[in-house]
Design brief:
Shape: globular
Number of strands: 18
Strand content: 15-25%
Order of helices and strands: HEHEEHHEHEHEEHEEEEHEHEEEHEEEHH
Distance between the termini: 35 Å
Structural class: alpha/beta
Largest sheet: 8 strands, mixed
Oligomer: single chain
Radius of gyration: 21 Å
Number of helices: 12
Helix content: 25-40%
């Protein structure tokens, strides 16, 4: 078993980074080479803006290369809950943004000729307990009525065509949802941004910043650049240089295992529907087949802000137990990959974007950024170029988390609370 991201290990790394020390004067500097930053850099360069992108590790290193590979339509909450929390107009704008982002990803893949196994496979949100069925049926009816008439309720009998397990009691099918190979998309997006003229420096963390009369000076270990505007696209990996955002974000570790390739018979007896799947527990699992027919199975196996080899090993063991409890037929199937990564969560789990602390930003995707981040990167580019009404998250207040200074000490308490809730019938 390799303790590495399957997405990283099975894609060709980006190899067109700018050589030599960081230097130059730019109109916009983007910090973070995940989907948000790469999308912003591509759009800016395509529009003729002189743009630099600074990445602390390598392209797609963070959440963009460590997620479950889902591009799911809509947001995590019921539409009614979002409407109550955000107001109807904002709830609808946010829902549309998730759907529009999948459409945008599909167009970019076609325009830039990115080979990343994109497919509109649909997603099923599964009822993990009989007591969850009525709530999900109500949610499905509301989604159909308010925002997406293509959503469909599947009975337990209907599910036998999709997922072969006794663990589920019905589910909501969202056919607009998609999937792709995240590593190949990230590297393809970086190649596109480079091709359009963006300067991309990898392994160049921003260690300090200084406000100037006409913008910012950004320092890295290899050099310094200046830029009139800065886009911050670091989410859970935001450095202490930008403490304003760290006080508002809670980095939570999420973990994934990937099996060896399954045989056609094994697929037929586990996931014949070949869709994205999530369950309805508070500490949820998500799973799907990879492009080469491996089972990818993930979840928040532990509530912490740490992902390293030790936590990955213990979390991988727990995820294997969870996978086998859902699919006993996979008990003897080997695990080839195991990894973890950080998810940037807000207190209410809704994302945030706008201008603050001298930068333009989008983050706080709360585990649902794979689909939304490309769209938000484009929106940040438009904001930097002076376009009004480009931000679908405009007006979302974002107070600091009480008693939180960047290290979320309270996560184990939160995890215990939700585990207890999941034990209830």
């Amino acid at each position: 078993m390799r303790f590495a991201s399957y997405w990283h290990e099975t894609s060709i790394p980006f190899a067109m980074g700018t050589a030599g020390p960081v230097s130059g004067d730019f109109e916009v500097a983007v910090i973070g080479a995940g989907f948000t930053g790469l999308s912003a850099a591509r759009k800016l360069a395509q529009s003729g803006v002189k743009v630099a992108l600074l990445e602390a590790e390598h392209v797609g290193y963070g959440a963009s290369g460590r997620n479950g590979g889902h591009l799911n339509s809509g947001h995590f909450a019921s539409f009614g809950a979002a409407k109550q929390h955000l107001g109807e107009d904002r709830a609808r704008r946010l829902w549309r943004a998730y759907d529009d982002s999948i459409d945008l990803i599909e167009r970019i893949i076609e325009d830039e000729k990115i080979a990343c196994d994109f497919r509109r496979g649909g997603k099923i949100k599964l009822a993990s307990k009989p007591s969850h069925v009525a709530k999900l049926q109500t949610m499905c009816a509301e989604i159909r009525r308010e925002v997406d008439p293509s959503a469909e309720w599947l009975t337990r009998e209907d599910l036998r065509k999709e997922v072969i397990s006794d663990a589920f009691h019905g589910g909501i099918l969202s056919p607009k949802s998609a999937m792709m190979h995240m590593g190949r998309y990230a590297n393809g997006l970086a190649q596109a941004a480079h091709r359009h003229g963006a300067a991309i420096w990898e392994r160049s963390p921003v260690t300090a910043r200084e406000r100037m009369r006409n913008g910012w000076r950004l320092n890295t270990p290899t050099g310094t650049l200046t830029a009139r505007q800065v886009i911050l696209a670091t989410d859970a990996y935001t450095p202490s240089t930008f403490n304003y955002f760290r006080r508002r974000l809670m980095p939570i570790a999420s973990f994934i295992i990937v099996t060896r390739p399954l045989t056609s018979q094994e697929i037929a007896t586990t996931l014949p529907g070949n869709r994205n799947f999530t369950n309805s527990l508070n500490i949820a699992n998500y799973f799907r087949l990879t492009p080469d027919n491996r089972m990818l199975f993930g979840g928040r196996a532990r509530f912490s802000a740490v992902s390293n080899q030790k936590t990955n090993v213990s979390s991988g063991q727990l995820l294997r137990q969870q996978m086998v409890s859902v699919f006993p037929q996979l008990a003897n199937v080997e695990i080839d990959y195991c990894w973890g990564g950080l998810v940037g969560c807000t207190q209410d789990r809704y994302p945030r974007a706008g201008s603050a602390d001298g930068v333009i930003y989008s983050m706080g995707y709360s585990g649902h950024g794979a689909q939304l981040s490309t769209f938000m990167g484009n929106a940040l580019a438009d904001i930097a170029m002076g376009q009004k009404d480009a931000n679908p998250l405009d007006g979302f207040a974002w107070p600091a988390v009480p008693l939180h200074a960047g290290n979320p000490w309270f996560l184990p308490i939160v995890g215990t609370y939700y585990r207890m809730k999941d034990l209830m019938p």
